[in-house]
Amino acid sequence: MLKLMTSAAALMLSVDAMAADCPAILDSTQRKLNSTEMVNLCESFKGKTLLVVNTASQCGFTSQFSGLEALYQMYKADNFAVVGFPSNDFNQDRGDESRSAKVCYLDYGVTFPMLSRSAVKGTNANPVFKEIIKASGVEPKWNFYKYLITPDGKVVATFPSSVAPQSETLLGMIEQHIR
Predict the structure, then answer these.
(1) What is the mean pLDDT of residues 143-151?
(2) Residue 167 is part of which domain span?
(3) 38 contacts 29 by C-beta, under 8 angstroms
(4) In the chain, how many domains are there?
(5) Which residues form the signal peptide (predicted)?
């Protein structure tokens, strides 16, 4: 009986320690794009440098999916991930999630994590974006806003839509923060 109680106490401490180590930005579970599969962000991205991007499938910047995928491939071995959040906040992600998924996965060959469509600004914003906006003071003003987040959950840089994924400034910031 004592052994069972000790094991239960150790498990509770382990869960508490994991929760304490999870940055607020990652403290949620999200659904994958056009899927029923759920992703615990803390488990999936803890210890990684992230480039979080709000995306849209019918935007003048949609071609940035190619550059974002190239970044992901270039740095994923260095504890780096791109995470896409499709949003129709700017009326550029029309149709259902299957259309968004087709653009991402089939048209652009995206392999980095894409999460379900959600709001990225305002009171209905996804919890990840609420935390990003709180930490950075920068709400996305259009699609393909990029937020560089360190493994400890700090937003260290924001990049507007006009900054291409292969820009020297963005690449330099990623290289400064990958481990």
Answers:
(1) 97
(2) 24-177
(3) yes
(4) 1
(5) 1-19
What pLDDT does residue 129 have? 97
CATH of the domain at 91: 3.40.30.10
> What confidence score (pLDDT) does residue 95 get?
85
34-87 pLDDT, tens per residue?
999 999 999 999 999 999 999 999 999 999 999 999 999 999 999 999 999 999
Is position 78 within any domain? yes
The answer as to whether 44 is a domain residue is yes
3-state secondary structure the chain: CHHHHHHHHHHHHHHHHHHHHCCHHHCCEEEECCCCCEEEHHHHHCCCEEEEEEECCCCCCCCHHHHHHHHHHHHHHHCEEEEEEECCCCCCCCCCHHHHHHHHHHHCCCCCCEECCCCCCCCCCCHHHHHHHHHHCCCCCCCCCEEEECCCCCEEEEECCCCCCCCHHHHHHHHHHCC
Say whether pLDDT at 177 is over 70.
yes
Q: How far is CA 175 from CA 1, 71, 122, 141, in A?
A: 51, 11, 31, 26
Catalytic residues: 59
Residue 1 in domain: no
Predicted structure pTM score? 0.88
Radius of gyration of the chain (CA): 17
pLDDT at res. 21: 84
